[in-house]
Design a protein that fits this description.
Rossmann fold, UDP-galactose 4-epimerase, domain 1, alpha/beta, eight-stranded mixed sheet, 326 residues, single chain
Length: 326
């Protein structure tokens, strides 16, 4: 089985690739090749057993031809994207990665089918950004109303995945991911990075200034939980789920004060006194007024949230190491 992961050197991509490589299989099928694609992989070897790393521009069709030559795709995890703040600042780059590259990957499924091959399973990492403001409870019937370029492009990707699946060119599943914690410190354009920073900094014994007030409510999931859900999507019986292909993943909804209390339970009670709240109106307006989520279709399909906020905090630093104090 040949599996491709795009954005494979990113936060979620590295964890997903590591899980796949360690298992050596996806569902009940053994992996014969795991192709990882990103702009770069540092000093990691280009090939390592079944793992093949390819550095380059995802929207470069010639590069993809070279990377995937002679190896039909059985499954694609399409994680690569240009996120929120960066997408707003650089529309051309966001369009190239979030739209053009997504369409190019889907076209590879079509080309594979037209020469007699099987349609690859296509797992598209969408985002809750498709909804826009989350000030009213979100259900399976909530209409997307994106308010940022990133959300609009993710919604377009969902529609393309549905259409290519309808035509039998891919077997698609789109997952609307919430915030994923805890991202390592990096300039990624993630406007919600403070949710990762607060866990990492308090776990390390350092003070933290929260840009949202104690009562501000938001959504997030741990990295291990999101990887579990991506892997589940790849083996999901879509036909047994009324042909539904787009899911808003279950996630934790919590206030900043509740998050701090959970961090204190895991990393020491003094974490509470090391937090100072200095709300940023723009940040709180965008991320601090999230209403409850009722993801009934996803729950019925076997997707799961973290068991508790404490479990989210415990899982948030898995795969990136526990930061030392200092």
């Amino acid at each position: 089985m040949h599996v491709l992961v795009t954005g494979a050197n990113g936060f979620v991509g590295r964890a997903l690739a590591a899980r796949l490589a360690a298992a050596g299989r996806l569902g009940d099928r053994a992996l014969t090749r795991l192709s990882l694609l990103d702009m770069g992989f540092g000093d990691a070897p280009a090939r390592e057993g079944l793992v093949h790393r390819h550095a380059g521009d995802l929207a470069d069709a010639a590069m993809l031809d070279r990377a995937l030559a002679g190896a039909p795709l059985d499954a694609v995890f399409h994680l690569a994207s240009i996120p929120g703040g960066t997408a707003e600042a650089d529309y051309a780059l966001a369009r190239r990665v979030n739209l053009d590259a997504t369409l190019g990957l889907l076209e590879r499924g079509r080309a594979q089918v037209l020469v007699g091959g099987a349609a690859p399973v296509f797992i598209f990492a969408s985002s809750i950004a498709v909804f826009g403001p989350l000030s009213a409870p979100v259900t399976d019937d909530t209409l997307p109303r994106p308010q940022m370029t990133y959300g609009a492009q993710k919604l377009a990707g969902e529609i393309l995945v549905d259409d290519f699946s309808r035509r039998g060119w891919v077997d698609g599943r789109s997952l609307r991911l919430p915030g994923v914690l805890a991202r390592p410190p990096a300039r990624t354009g993630q406007l919600s990075a403070f949710l990762s920073d607060i866990i990492r900094e308090l776990a390390a014994g350092r003070p933290f200034v929260s840009p949202m007030s104690p009562q501000a409510r938001t959504w997030a999931s741990s990295l291990p939980n999101v990887v579990d859900n991506l892997l589940h999507a790849a083996v999901l019986d879509v036909m047994g789920q009324a042909r539904r292909r787009t899911y808003t993943l279950p996630t934790s909804c919590f206030s900043m004060a509740e998050l701090v209390d959970a961090i204190a339970q895991v990393h020491g009670a003094d974490a509470v006194r090391r937090v100072r709240y200095e709300p940023d109106a723009a940040i709180e307006q965008r991320f601090g007024g999230f209403a409850p989520l009722h993801a009934q279709a996803a729950l019925a399909a076997g997707f799961r949230a973290d068991d508790s906020l404490v479990d989210l905090v415990r899982g948030a630093l898995d795969g990136i190491g526990h930061p030392g104090a200092g």
